[in-house]
Prior knowledge:
The complex is a heterodimer of chains A (about 240) and B (about 375). With about 240 residues, chain A is α/β, with parallel strands linked by helices. Chain A has helices at about 45-50, 95-100, 105, 115-125, 140-155, 170-185, 200-205, 220-225, 230-235, and strands at about 5-15, 20-30, 35-40, 60-65, 75-80, 160-165, 190-195, 210-215, 215-220. Chain A is built from nine helices and nine strands. The longest helix of chain A has 16 residues, at about 170-185. Chain A is globular and about 50 Å long.
Amino acid sequence: MSEKIAIQVDDLTVAYNYKPVLWDIDLVIPEGVLMAIVGPNGAGKSTLIKAILAIIKPIAGSVAIYGKPYEEQRKQVAYVPQKGSVDWDFPTTALDVVMMGTYGSLGWIKRPGQKEKKAALEALEKVGMLAFKHRQISQLSGGQQQRIFLARALVQNASIYFMDEPFQGVDATTEIAIINILKELRKAGKTLVVVHHDLQTVPEYFDWVTFLNVKKIATGPVKEIFNDDNLTKTYGINYKVAINQ
Amino acid sequence: MSSPQIEIQLIAMVVAIACAIPGVFLVLRKMALISDAISHSILPGIVAGFFITHDLNSPILILLAALTGVITVVLVEAIQKTGLVKEDTAIGLVFPALFSIGVILIAKNANDVHLDVDAVLLGELAFAPFDRLLLSGVDLGPKSLWIMGSILLITLVLLFLFFKELKVSTFDAGLSSAMGISPIVMHYGLMSVSSITVVGAFDAVGAILVVALMIAPAATAYLLTANLKKMMLLSVGFGIFSALAGYWVAHWLDASISGSMTTVLGLVFLGVYLFAPNKGLLAVLYRHKQQRTEVSLITFLLHLNNHSEERERHINHLNEHINWQKVRSQSVLDLALKNNMITIDHKIVSLTEKGKEFTDLALEYIITNKDEKIEPMKDDFFLFRG
């Protein structure tokens, strides 16, 4: 891990219908960490990611990706939305969905060609889904759909990855496959920000963690701050979890 | 065929194609209802435009009316954003209000306006060849063919340029936005094209039937393919077919052309809904029946697998043990025999090597839910196709 700052969030406040869902968030994420965002339902975890990616407009605050506004750094960033946020009955194939990851770097109007197709096939191979490239996406299992989403983020060929619950609805094999790819990305110097629900696996999977519940409770290395105190502050109850140090 | 007949069919075809293209994206975005709203709420725009231009085929009128269509979308979204009502309620609030303004405008100015509500609602293709485009005295053909032709051309160019943007913003608005392909821009682009198409088409087919021309071809194509490009081509195909078939049905019945076109579309949808190979009603019913049989087969094989004692495997005792009716037991027995999964020796049923293998695979699938194991079985068995 270098000392370089990948993502800096200052005084970020987001509200839906005048009700704040994120309140005055300050967050500094160093380059090269694999970070979990944890917090109860409605804590604003997905909203935080969406606000950083300028999908939602905050009512206050600013975001910098490597020191510049997100709009200038789009190509450095890959995004895996929640699996449930799209219609899997959409008439398309696994390969085509992965190809969509190249649309950002292509920009408007330009179409994907052989180069983009090759990158998509490689990404499919990496997530173990090459055999399913022509499969209609509604015919894929939940775990396979999640792998397709991961492959799509891989072809975005970014420095920073934002993932909204990539382990939701996947079986143990897929979960292990996904976390191995994430760890590999971190080793390659990438920064990963992952909305995560399973507190038991935080110490095993991640090296950095942010506790969030509308306000930021704490952020830092898992080894230092993943403790009962912060869990209690975040979840509002005395949350006992086994921490495998 | 006389030349007006050919012209009417040409116009009908162009209208159908121009409607089918945005229709695909409206259906995929679950926005079919908004096209209904647009088609009604353009009325005040058309009337206002007509006061200004006195020409139903004027491009200014088309743009003005299309603007009312886009305003409808904005109003619906504004009402929805209050969080007090849901989208369908917001649509139901906005378009009748705008439509009724149009109706009042027409009624108040009935003497000055050569426009009546019937024509707006139902349109009349048969009259289209009478209004001709003349350029320094040369007859260039029916005006509405030129208007719809231009709209179709613009739609095709936009579709060609922004196909990838339309696709990604329809499938995954979040990713699209994060990548800098603004879903809002795409949304309003699609709404504008839809509005312009509806306005252009309303003269020929009327405000009500234009909705069918947009939605029915796409909905029909959706049942037949899992490929967006094929879905577009099929929609266009259904549009053309309905235009031509509708014309001749109208000719034969001496009835409204647009009404016949829509009826043809409805019948085509019904046919596809019943007979489509995968998603069709009959295919689904057949599949369910097959799946029931296959579940029975697996249950039966598992029973054989679990019991080595002959008592449990005697053909006459099977229906007692698995608690099935005789007919069902027999059909399952036949199916297993046909697939060489069992042998029957002195009325004692035994699993063959193949049957054993199949049972093991099925068991493993049931336990682990792992797809790879059963890939080769998917071709023969519906049960494993998800």
